[in-house]
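Entry for the shared binder. Reason: the reviewer on the internal report wants the predicted structure included alongside the sequence.
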Amino acid sequence: MNQNSRSIVSFTMVSHAIVHTYELSIPILVVIWLSEFSITTAAIGTVVAVGYALFGVGALPSGVLADRYSTKRLVLVGLAGMGASFLLLSLAPGTATIALALALWGAFASIHHPASLSLISTGVDESGTGFAYHGMAGNLGIAFGPFLTASLLVVFDWRVVAALLVVPAAIAVVYALSAEFDEMAAVDVDGTEAAAAGDTATDADGTEHGLLGFLADTRALFTVGFALVLTVVVMNGLFYRGTLTFLPDVLGGFVTDVPGPFGRIAPDSALAAEFDLASYLYAGLLTVGIAGQYTGGKLTDRIPVAAGLAAVFTTLVALAVAFVPVASRGLVPLVAISAVFGFVLFSIQPLYQAAIAAYSPPDGRGLSYGYTYLANFGVGAAGAAIAGYLLGMTTVSQAFFLLALVPATGAVLAVVLYTVVGEETRSG
């Protein structure tokens, strides 16, 4: 990668890590809130769900903004807003303020993916590698955010911890202000398209800034290829949320007999349940995902993305079917299948991100990634409900077998994309 690309990748990596650090710090804080406030798990779940919902739903308007304004400025706004929301959280006297703070966090966090991925797709010369590094940074936040928060809670009150978590966002903002790069360096554009790199992109009458313009842009975006890729993203979101939401509990069912130092580190602690062996194994799985992100990103620069999507989805089908039989054979097989599962599960993200870029126009990337993360985080959130229902009505093995139908559908759609739509229809 050239210097411009490295600057963009570094800029987006920092923001991505912070987004997911905050995202995964919230469940740790929930443990404290349940013990401090007179509130049910259902009520606190609703409070938290509002923030997470806005994280997904807000991606679409954020994508629209990413096509209208500088993506760098939008990411800066997102970073500053996330920091401000956790500052408000540190001052919360009760659950109403917590709800407001988390809602603000979700709204500002939703800016990141459409803006940053649009920036990578238009400004980085090896976009697949850029997506890979971006995803790796996100996995770092996912894997280490909970441990950072829990470690601070050992020493400080939760409000102090929330205030301390503002510091990374503040540092990131300072760094981002100094970053310089060309947002459209990787796109061959004529004079009219080059305006997309500026502050605004308007016609003489400015119509595209309104509802009619949004609908027109959406109509232009939804080619057959893009619609297929977006459906593939929905399949990924359903499987991702469906498996990861309950995976710590599932893993716990295989490690209940493991004694000694592999057990809970502080049985009498309010946080003990977060740190049994299953939690360590879960965090390890997420960490292995860093390597998966890197590998998937490298593949996007070497093979057709649709073929890569088909191959990864097919592998996920096999892993879902084999997971319980292998995991039940002992600790070593459990660790091995968990590591492979984490690697493959996260390797698909750079592939579908590159596919979105391949089947959407450069000046509509923000909108395309807005729809992408509405599909992935918004529609994909239904995967948690589906998995919860299956686990309640069937055995764990049967639930995983039925969940395998989701990546199987994704594999079929990817094959259709590769064989029917074809490379020649790409817009990027």
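Summary line for the report: The radius of gyration is 21 Å.
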